[in-house]
Amino acid sequence: MSSLISGAGFALLGASVAQPLFRGGQLKAEQRAAVAAYDQAHATYRDAVLTGLQNVADVLVALDGDARTLHERTEAANLAKTTYEITSQRYESGGVSLLELLEAQRRQVSASLDEIAAIADRYADSAALFQALGGGWWTQPPPTPPPVTPPQQP
Q: Which of 45, 22, 26, 46 lies closest to 34, judged by CA?
């Protein structure tokens, strides 16, 4: 009878040792799957960060160009205004024709419109920078944490 009990104990011991050996392949596969999921999540996060940084850099370059354009168009508008004022004084004294006065006025209005367009471009790119930096986060409600479920008893 004791040999039967010791034989059964050996069988149980053998089965309990063999079970992790047979599951070893499954555990390795699960580990590889977890590592692959981590690598994929890391790559996705890295791509999102790089894309965000590229967007910010692109908008900053656009803003720099907008600043130069606005400066040039402001100077052109000021010059056109000065030219119109001089032409207006010359018209009043009889030195130029009405056609020349109207042409100076047309150039002044055109230069002013170009300046306004440059200001609008600058505002649009400023808004794009704000968006690229993640603006608007304070207008969204805070995220609600997921509900906590108590662990289940076996």
A: 26
CB neighbour list of residue 73: distance below 8 Å, 6 or more residues apart: 111, 114, 115, 117, 118
- Residues in the chain, total: 154
In a domain? residue 91: yes
Residue 49 lies inside a defined structural domain of this protein: yes
Radius of gyration of the chain (CA): 38
Question: What is the per-residue pLDDT across 3-51, written as a single tens digit (0 to 9) for each?
Answer: 545 555 555 555 555 555 556 678 888 888 999 999 999 999 999 899 9
Domain containing 49 equals: 24-132
CA pair distance 87, 108, nearest whole angstrom:
11
Q: Tell me how many degrees the CA angle 62-66-67 measures, rounded to the nearest 5.
A: 120
Q: In Å, how far are 17, 47, 96, 123, 129 from 54, measured between CA atoms?
A: 55, 10, 55, 20, 11
pTM over 0.70: no
Using CA atoms, how far apart are residues 106 and 13, in angstroms rounded to an integer? 100
Domain annotation covers residue 32: yes
Q: Is residue 54 part of a domain?
A: yes
